Amino acid sequence: MKGRVVLLIAHGSREEIANQEVCEMAQRMEKRLDRVPVIACFLDVASPDIPEGFRQAASLGACQITAIPFFLATGAHVGQDIPRILEDCRKGHPGIEVRITAAVGPDPGLDAIALERMHQASWPDQKPSGGRPMAQESVGSSPWLHKQSGIREEFRSVCGFRRNILTPADETRISISHLRINDSRNHYHKVLEEVYYVLKGEGSMSLDGEKIPLRPGDAVVVRPGVRHHAEGDIEVLIICCPPFEDGDCFYDE
Question: What is the dotted CATH code of the domain comprising 155-248?
Answer without folding.
Answer: 2.60.120.10
